[in-house]
Write a structure and sequence with these properties.
Blueprint (H helix, E strand, L loop, with lengths): L40 H25 L3 H18 L7 E2 L5 H11 L1 H20 L3 H4 L4 H23 L8 H6 L1 H6 L3 H16 L5 H7 L4 H16 L24 H31 L13 H17 L6 E2 L1 H9 L6 H16 L1 H4 L4 H15 L2 H9 L3 H13 L2 H21 L2 E6 L5 E6 L7 H9 L6 E7 L5 H16 L3 E5 L5 E2 L8 H5 L38 H34 L5 E6 L6 H5 L6 E6 L14 H13 L4 E7 L3 H8 L12 H6 L3 H8 L6 E3 L7 H18 L2 H9 L3 E8 L4 E5 L10 E6 L17
Parallel strand pairs: 4-5, 5-6, 8-9, 8-10, 10-12, 11-14
Antiparallel strand pairs: 1-2, 3-4, 6-7, 12-13, 13-14
Pfam families: Pro_CA, Sulfate_transp
Keywords: Membrane, Transmembrane, Transmembrane helix
Protein name: Transporter
């Protein structure tokens, strides 16, 4: 022996690298230190779960294609061993996929089985070439609507063909023929086949929904295996006369031969198999990455898939599968999801599942021969219907790609996979061009003679003729507003608009170019500064003046507006405000509504479940969603002048605030309540400026009566019995800020007096928070330890990575 054995019996030493026990002068061992081959228990259990799913599915897919049933087992074994070993997605499980059923069935019918095997091997070689030139990532550029439409079309075709076997007949060669002869098939049902198929479908669909603890335990066994087993037991016990699986001897297994047929036809077949297997495998790998990222424990083989390596692994698997007489191989989403869900941590689970397939094909042939063919057909039929996913349909509809999806489905079902995908790509390009060229140009004249031209959509060279026609209809020496309601302007449109603006201005006219929110643009302008003033040059989208920002639509601000140059399109302030409102609503419906519609629809169905009650001031500068980074359904907000909380039973108390508190605490079950004050609060300024000796009967205005609920805050600030309010280590800058901070503390005490709040606080299920927002600094501060009562300061701490302000300030007027 060339290595010493450690004398210590400590088991932890066994994990130490073996090289440290090497004798200093002995020759090196044959390949260096040996690595022990270890298989995690999670991989072992996951491989068994995947095997139990893959075995019946592989047989069913082989049956659906018309290939020898052994070909499905060969593809499953090769997918597990070869693609699992060399692929770039360690947890993806490969094998015969339902998405290849239609393609393979057509190839077998046209060229025969031996030529189909050769086509599979050539497709694998093509995948190796594609992996070498690193095009895997670019394959993901195909629109999801096309991919989902392709899978749905294949699923429809599979379901229609297998339906005939379920009913006791035999399928036709195309989806159209299967639909045409379906009435005759329904009139001649084969009872035993229908009964076996019905049992299979019932078990398959009901198995995932078994209730109770027993159901949770039972669901660990795959539903596909249970359904096929139940069908086999039924046929054995009743002696039904239904066709069963008949695996011939492996000695008679058909191997590939030289391709026979027209060269162009063979090349098109290779291209089709390459396209379908590659896209399906890559999309499945991306989906597996998302599933793995959602798990707590990472896999041992890395976090993300190497798509080029995965494509090479799929190519190697197809070469081997075709050479051994197997079906085309691709990454399969169903088995991959099962693998991840079962807790697999490395590629060992995928490879072991392939090994179990080999052992089953060698030693479980008698048990496999008991499976009735109608049960396999029913299994594949259900898989085909599941490929027509409602989720994919909703996604296509939400992204306005339903036309692309529907055309792809119809093309695949009626013409074939390659033809359907090509038609889908053409439709996607046509839809994109239509959207790019869809530009609405309208003209209108205001009461004072000003002209308004609105351009909705993207301004490209396709819209230049209509834009020129609308601009040339504007009379000379008139005021014109051109509203560009889009996000892109190409060079041709830019030059057209700039040339017309120069000419119209030179003839004594006035031109104002605005965005969809009424914000004036400085460009396009004349001279060399045109590109600088627009911020885009002649090629970019129209841009606002530097004083405008992305939040301009909700700011009371107009770029470049001057008192001596009123907008020609807005003769009155009320008309301008109404126009701003309508424009803002239009922008919301067009840009924001599509993004939030799904979430709002969910909230409409399920109701609101906010986590916080947020009580803040009605000041227009406080945008609660911006400050708290919250969205629809997150905050239950109450806004009033001065962020006041009238104490229960107070004279002339406002019940609206108390009602909101009660509803939020008792009905909505919020976990926290936040009172947010802010700098420069007008209510606090009015409270400080009001005479201290004003009799209550003279508080005749609603504002004065309301501010009486803030009087305890003013008394608290002036009293020496209560703590000072500090803001991030300094004293407030002036008396107004001191009162704003003190008011937050005082209103928290008022809040604590409400019975519903006090009860939840005693239960420990509610928290109270104080918050202060400095408008000028755009900085939020949180009150330490909630309500502070006593001689210690009430400290508001800074939130966020902003640097502390300078030094400690002092009050401009001292407390009484």
């Amino acid at each position: 022996m060339t290595a010493c054995v450690p004398t210590s019996t400590d088991h932890s030493s066994s994990t130490t690298d073996a090289s440290q026990f090497q004798r200093p002068h002995s020759p090196p061992t044959g390949g260096g230190p040996r690595r022990r081959f270890r298989i995690a228990g999670a991989d072992l259990s996951a491989s068994i779960a995947v095997f139990l799913i893959a075995l019946p599915l592989s047989l069913g897919i082989a049956l659906a294609t018309g290939a020898p049933l052994q070909a499905g087992l060969v593809a499953a074994a090769v997918g597990g061993l070869v693609a699992g070993r060399f692929g770039g997605a360690p947890l993806q499980v490969s094998g015969p996929a339902a998405g290849l059923t239609v393609v393979t069935a057509e190839l077998i019918q046209r060229y025969g089985w031996r030529t189909t095997c050769a086509i599979t091997a050539l497709a694998g070689l093509s995948q190796l070439v594609l992996a070498t030139v690193r095009v895997a990532r670019s394959a993901l550029a195909v629109s999801p609507a096309i991919v989902h439409g392709m899978l749905a079309g294949i699923g429809v075709t599979i379901a229609l063909s297998q339906l005939h076997i379920v009913l006791g007949g035999s399928p036709e060669s195309s989806a159209v023929d299967n639909v045409r002869v379906l009435p005759a098939q329904l009139a001649n049902l084969h009872g035993p086949a229908v009964l076996v198929s019905a049992l299979t479908v019932a078990v398959l669909l009901s198995w995932p929904h078994l209730p109770g603890r027993t159901g949770r335990i039972a669901r660990k066994v795959p539903g596909a295996l249970v359904a096929v087993t139940a069908a086999a037991v039924l046929t054995v016990l009743t002696g039904m006369n239904v066709p069963r699986v008949d695996l011939p001897s492996w000695s008679s297994h058909a191997l590939p031969g030289l391709p026979e047929g027209p060269v162009l036809g063979i090349a098109a077949a290779v291209l089709t198999v390459t396209l379908v297997t590659s896209v399906q495998s890559l999309l499945s790998a991306v989906a597996v990455d998302k599933l793995v990222a959602a798990r707590k424990e990472p896999p041992t083989d890395g976090q993300r898939s190497n798509l080029d390596r995965e494509l090479a692994g799929q190519g190697a698997a197809n070469i081997v599968s075709g050479a051994l007489g197997g079906l085309p191989v691709a990454g399969v989403a169903v088995r991959s999801v099962a693998n991840v869900s079962a807790g697999a941590v490395s590629r060992h689970s995928t490879m072991l599942h392939g090994l179990w397939i080999v052992l089953a094909a060698l030693f479980l042939v008698p048990a496999i021969d008991l499976i009735p063919l109608p049960a396999l057909a029913a299994l594949v039929m259900v898989v085909g219907f599941q490929m027509l996913s409602i989720t994919h349909i909703r996604s296509a509809s939400r992204h306005r790609e339903m036309l692309v999806y529907a055309v792809t489905v119809a093309g695949v079902a009626l013409l074939g996979v390659l033809e359907g995908v090509a038609i889908g790509i053409a439709m996607a390009v046509a839809v994109a061009l239509h959207r790019l060229a869809k530009t609405h140009i309208t003209t209108a004249t205001t009461t004072d003679g000003a002209h308004h031209i609105q351009v909705r959509g993207q301004l490209t060279f396709l819209a230049v003729p209509r834009l020129s026609r609308a601009l040339n209809q504007v009379p000379e020496r008139t005021a014109v507003v051109v509203e560009l309601d889009g996000s892109f302007m190409d060079h041709a449109a830019y030059e057209t608009l700039q040339y017309w603006q120069d000419a119209h201005t030179a003839r004594g006219g006035q031109v104002e170019i605005t965005g969809r929110s009424g914000n004036r643009f400085t460009g396009p302008v004349t001279g060399a500064s045109a590109g600088e003033s627009t911020g885009t040059g002649s090629h970019g989208a129209h841009s606002t003046h530097t004083c405008c920002r992305p939040w301009t639509p909700w700011r009371n601000h107009h770029c470049d507006h001057r008192a001596d140059a009123p907008s020609p399109a807005a003769p009155g302030r009320s008309g301008r405000s109404a126009g701003q409102l309508a424009t803002g609503l239009s922008a919301f419906q067009r840009n924001t509504a599509p993004l939030v519609r799904e979430e709002l629809a969910r909230l409409a169905r399920e109701g609101q479940t906010p986590s916080q009650l947020f009580i803040t001031c009605a000041d227009s500068r406080l945008v609660t969603s911006m400050i708290t980074s919250s969205g629809p359904g997150d905050l239950f907000t109450v806004r009033n002048v001065g962020n006041l909380v009238p104490p229960p039973g107070a004279e002339s108390a406002d019940d609206s605030v108390g009602a909101a508190i009660e509803y939020a605490v008792d009905v909505l079950k919020v976990q926290s309540i936040t009172i947010c004050g802010h700098s420069g609060c007008g209510a606090m300024q009015a409270l400080l400026n009001s005479p201290a000796d004003t009799p209550p009967d003279e508080d005749r205005t609603p504002l004065r009566r309301w501010l009486r609920h803030a009087a305890p805050s003013l008394d608290r600030m002036r009293s020496k019995k209560h703590s000072w309010a500090r803001i991030s280590g300094r004293l407030p800058a002036d008396a107004v800020e001191q009162l704003c901070l003190t008011n937050v503390v005082q209103q928290l005490e008022h809040l604590h007096a409400h019975e519903a709040v006090r009860r939840r606080l005693d239960e420990g299920t509610l928290e109270l928070h104080g918050m202060y927002f400095h408008v000028g600094e755009a900085q939020a501060y949180l009150l330490q330890d909630g309500i502070r009562i006593g001689e210690t300061d009430a400290v508001f701490d800074r939130v966020g990575p902003v640097e502390d302000p300078e030094a400690e300030g002092s009050l401009e007027e001292s407390r009484a």
